[in-house]
Amino acid sequence: MALGKYSRVDNNNNNNNNNRKSSGYCSSVTVVVFVGLCLVGIWMLISSSNVSVGDEPALEKKTQLQDKVAPVTSDNSDSSNTSQFEENPGDLPDDATKGDTNVSLAENDGKGNLNTQSDSEESKEKPDSDEKDKKSEKSNEKSESDGKYDKSDSDDGEKKQDKNSSETNGDQGDGQIEKVDQNDNNELDKGSDEANDGVQEKNQSLTDVFPSVAQFEFLNETTTQTGSFSTQASESTAEKESQLSFKKYSWKVCNSTAGPDYIPCLDNLEAIRHLHSTKHYEHRERHCPEEPPTCLVPLPEGYKLPIEWPKSREKIWYYNVPHTKLAQIKGHQNWVKVTGEYLTFPGGGTQFKHGALHYIDFIEESVPDVAWGKQTRVILDVGCGVASFGGFLFDRNVVAMSFAPKDEHEAQVQFALERGIPAVSSVMGTKRLPYPGRVFDVVHCARCRVPWRIEGGKLLLELNRVLRPGGFFVWSATPIYQNKAEDVEIWEAMVELTKSMCWELVNKTSKDAVNGVAVAAFRKPTSNECYEQRTKQEPPLCPQSDDPNAAWNVPLQACMHKAPVDSAERGSHWPEQWPARLEKSPYWLSSSQVGVYGKAAPEDFTADNEHWKRVVTKSYVNGMGISWSYVRNVMDMNAVYGGFAAALKDMDLWVMNVVPIDSPDTLPIIYERGLFGMYHDWCESFSTYPRSYDLLHADHLFSKVKKRCNLVAVVAEVDRILRPEGRLIVRDNVEIINELENMLKSMQWEVRMTYSKDKEGLLCVQKSMWRPKEVETIKYAIA
């Protein structure tokens, strides 16, 4: 029993031992597996740590990549970008294009030459220099995504800047419109561990894509550019600026009886209704409102860009000047006809139905001393109609200041301007014409319906004032060649009046075989001998106190000014023949006189002439992206000596030189050069139709005008007289440039170029077709 007992016990022990062995084996396996897993985990952790931390070659390659990318911005200035603007009083420096960051010159051609483009807000905002070291990672991301390393188009390492920061900078330091940042070629400090650690991870992918130095040149060649695509940043910035401008300037469309043809100083119907008399054409004279309008004149429905010269001399778009009354009245005289979508001009007129050129040559044959284009350069055409006479005088190197009233002959001056022929809306009424005395070589009147003989010949005496001594008055009206009682009476009165004025009747022709008209030519004396020998002092001589050059709102006087006798006095000699007279300083400018810019007058004149030659040639003609073949009607709003117009003499265009009434009276010099122009007060509207000019030029005008005028009204007037897609070039101080730029942007004008340095600025903008939706009724202009 004992054995049995113990046998049972032994068997149990064996089983227990076996269980213990099995359990220990499992535990050992578990431990081994656990340890193995731990080792694998540790190995994986160690391997991972080595990959993320220990790749020193990758950092080296990243640094090499930065070396390749950063220097892409060139420090070299292209010499072709210099001397765009000359260093003269109120002018811009030689390196005008250097550092110009405005997007209107935005994209370069890859050779360092700046070209214009339409997007004026493509500038990219760069981080400040103190942020570059702290945020170099973001800087690298920006460089990769934008790809705008501005290779050779960044002079002296200057980079393009966002417009907002540019305008902010314009109020600081040198007063620049755009902030110009110097490019930091050491954007990442290679000796800084902080910089290396901060950019390492972001550049890892670049190392993978470009694993060898041989690939970095490929990177240079394939860096992305924005090309023709704008960026969201620039679009958003531009929109925010536009919204701010709209809030500041609230433009409306003018509602007046004249509609698209509104001329504020000639369409003041309320003032005209209160006139005491219209006997002397007072209702055709200027009656400017006390507060000039600040609204924008609407466009005619169907308006198109004008036809180019010289085709425009023969035809214009009907919808640009949609008036047919004149065609109905004067069509048989070949003034104007309606031909489909065009208004056509056969080149005729009341006195030259079969063409102006034959008529022009007939005058020269009758009076050889006229010598078109040589002896005679600048003429005044009174009662010009559609100005075909002046339009064809261009073929003889003669420029004509043509004028006619805004009367029942619907839009005759507007037809002339649309054709590309100089003309203004004016009338011989109660005031002097806005020209200096003794400036026109010839005064012409072809059946202009002016009652010369009334009131002591007051109107003819006004022509005597502006006619140069020795100049001709050419008249071709019916009293010269018709025998009707009225015509005979008028002719006899005219002969008597001109004789008392000491005018010589040089020739009275017989009828021309082609046009069936005759011409009478009178010549103004060059001395006072005849005046002194008159038995009857009628018309009387003007008192010495009467200035013949005083012409702005001066009442007409029935008197004559003496001929100048001093050889140094203007008008005592005939000017040089054209074109020599253009370049030569007038003989009557003395070295004892101080010129506009502070030098002796002759030296001042010469310096101004050379200055504008350089500016026009180096900047305006080739540096602004202006298609000059589309430019015909030009106005210099502050002409001084006429240097701007003289510099454009070889182009197929004409320039209206305006001398503001509060500026030095240099208009006689302009006429002496063989150019023309008139006086004007820019606080009032100009006597021209809307959409008259292709290009306006204003050199330091607006800063002066702002002192006494409402600048918003002046800008509205600029908008009125400039054609859609026409250009405005402004040179002025930087504050005015900034103000004008914001104002014109609010009118949806396109900024083509801006530049500033040393508190002087340049702005070139292009008018758009945009018109506001809100309307403002001009009560005094409603019939």
UniProtKB/TrEMBL annotation:
Offer one Pfam family short name for this entry. Methyltransf_29
Organism, by scientific name, is: Hibiscus syriacus (Rose of Sharon)
Q: Where is the composition biased (Low complexity)?
A: 73-83
Q: What is this protein called?
A: Methyltransferase PMT26
> How is this protein positioned relative to the membrane?
Single-pass type II membrane protein
Regarding protein family, the annotation reads: Belongs to the methyltransferase superfamily.
Q: Positions of the region Disordered? A: 1-22, 62-202
Basic and acidic residues bias: start-end ranges? 121-165, 176-193
Compartments where found: Endomembrane system
InterPro entries (UniProt xref): Put_SAM_MeTrfase, SAM-dependent_MTases_sf
Which PANTHER family does the protein's record reference? METHYLTRANSFERASE PMT26-RELATED, SAM-DEPENDENT METHYLTRANSFERASE
Q: Which GO terms describe its cellular component?
A: endosome; trans-Golgi network
Molecular function in Gene Ontology: methyltransferase activity
Segments spanning the bilayer are 25-46
One BP annotation, GO: methylation
Q: Which UniProt keywords apply?
A: Glycoprotein, Membrane, Methyltransferase, Signal-anchor, Transferase, Transmembrane, Transmembrane helix
Q: Which domain of life is it from?
A: Eukaryota
Q: What is its main location?
A: membrane
